[in-house]
Automatic annotation (TrEMBL), chains A, B, C, D:
This is HTH tetR-type domain-containing protein. Residues 35-54 bind DNA. Keywords: DNA-binding, Transcription, Transcription regulation. Residues 12-72 form the HTH tetR-type domain. It comes from Pseudonocardia eucalypti. The lineage of its organism: Bacteria, Bacillati, Actinomycetota, Actinomycetes, Pseudonocardiales. It comes from the Bacteria.
Length: 190, 190, 190, 190
DNA sequence: CATGAATGAGTGTTCATTCAT
DNA sequence: CATGAATGAACACTCATTCAT
């Protein structure tokens, strides 16, 4: 499972293989349980060779988080763009829900990494995360302002409930389309 | 943070301290990342002494899962009993939602442990878990049968979305009452 | 497997059970590999209780060696006494060979302990051992003086060859009588 | 004390040092008592580094047994070859006795390891051992068939008595030539 | 770019020993 | 007499990291 994009150089391809292997390891064994030797083996390398591509274990995992978030953001952007800038808030929220579910499913390993409770607030990954959750809070607020969602609730709380719900079932292996339409139905979104 | 109950013997008290410490460690560092030395230190022991109380690291963590699930089940039972056997399905579901949110919040460390993706299907903990999720699926199905929830959706999917939503925000530190009422509002549960 | 003797007191019986269990453990796992908890369990006690009967692990094992040697010496004495003080040297040596083989077989666990390469020279056990091997050197020398064994060889070397041969096969499980007569035959002892 | 052969690579030399150190440790403290830290220290490494060269403690010790047996077998082959294919059985047995005594003495640590009562029947080492003892049984049977040894005794029993005798005195430090000629004399082989 | 070899700090676990009960 | 509870040192083993090759 890879995140996107083409790479020309050999080093770039190895880097990509390492990221994928690391995402899988973190998904399977948790951030603390992910072993560099296992990652290296899965990428066809010896452990020491990782250090040619990443400064440290910490940086490798950070890079996984960044890649995962960047790809998820791209998908959100693409989905909203496809909907059109002036689409009604409910449609935009539906598109976002579907995009999130699909991303959580397709980038599963990367997503699990992002969910780790010890996610670092700082660094590029933290910034990307803040970006993503900020965008979502806006989408929810818009939908509340048009009455599609109850406006008695803090939009960030709604967003977090949605993330929790979508992530949990997407990672459990359910088809993302099913998860998304279940959410539409429960929220009477549409 | 402890799970409940009084213990008379010295060994029993140490065991309880170990369970609490282990729950906290697992919550903080994940199942794979939880270290026995850290757990022992938090419980005021040396690492080796754990083995007087638990056969192995694995058994200690299993015991944490069991305690957490047992306490959560007790709370669900109590909440439903308080509602009365013949309460309407919507009220019963609301009570369950509130109980789950409160439990997830108050037993936070134990709950996080239960959420670990590598939760063991077998053993006592697995059985307790199956019990709990089974009960919830029934509650959802009842609420669907009376029209309080859309019946186009697999009740187990609804249940998992609810768990995901409630766990995520409860563990993030939000007051559980707030999370519960947000869910009532979003689901138009009254 | 016990070494001999009757004991009246309860403490004495526990001590005996501990010695037997220790002999078995040492025989099975080697001196270094013998675990006090295993010994205690085999004797129906908890590890800590051993210290009521023996000062330390070291002393317990030493006591095993002493018991084994004492019993082996008793058997040698009895066999020679049965032969009569004035029996011919060849008959005395044959009796000693048979007694040693039988002892090695019947006291197998204790014998194995005595054979451990890290046998302590000092202490009571060392003295008993020196006694036993000294007696044997004399028996061999007598047999050489009457021409029953080649007298070109250091009697202590002969003794050690005999010990090595008899111990090895007795411990391997062969019936001791068979081992003894094989040795008679090979040495043309009659 | 090393077993034979030259090695070019650095890793190969470290491996050899580890084998020698392990043989010595096993000889001194028994199979169960041999500690990896001690072995590593004797080989000039830290304990963890052993795992670059051997999969586990078990495999390291197994390798010691294999090396010891392989070297002992080579010496037996060489001794018999030097005697010539058509040498009389008594001469062949004498050569074998001398070769075994010399091997037990020169490869002392490895030999002691091979003698450990918990020798594993399976694996390469077990096969080598069966090979060696099988060859010896044949040598004894030949000598019996020509009347050089009493033929009333099971040749495997004779072989085990010889092993026991030779091993015991060789390991005790006696010059192997002396042990071998003592055995010739006692068996009237000479 | 990548590996072979090593390290030092960490892991979970066992064990002899102590001592209050 | 014996156990329950704890310790501290050892154990085998893993791992992130380094660096010469």
């Amino acid at each position: 499972m890879t995140v996107s994009g083409r790479v020309r150089t050999k080093g770039g391809r190895t880097r990509r293989r390492l990221l994928d292997a690391a995402a899988a390891e973190v998904a399977r064994n948790g951030r603390a349980g992910a072993s560099l030797s296992a990652i290296a083996a899965a990428a066809g390398l010896k452990a020491g060779s990782i250090y040619f591509h990443f400064e440290s274990r910490e940086r490798l995992i950070e890079a996984v988080l960044e890649e995962g978030l960047r790809a998820t953001l791209e998908r959100l952007d693409a989905a909203l763009a496809a909907e059109g800038d002036h689409a009604p808030p409910a449609a935009r929220l539906r598109a976002a829900i579907r995009a999130h579910a699909v991303a959580a499913h397709e980038l599963r390993d990367y997503t699990v990494a992002v969910l780790a409770p010890d996610f670092p607030d700082g660094g590029t990954a933290g910034a990307l995360r803040r970006d993503y959750v900020g965008r979502w809070a806006e989408l929810v607020a818009e939908a509340q302002s048009t009455g599609h969602l109850p406006d008695s609730v803090d939009p960030r709380l709604v967003r977090d409930l949605l993330f929790g719900a979508l992530n949990a079932v997407s990672l459990a292996g359910r088809p993302p389309a099913e998860a998304a339409s279940a959410v539409y139905a429960l929220l009477r979104l549409g």
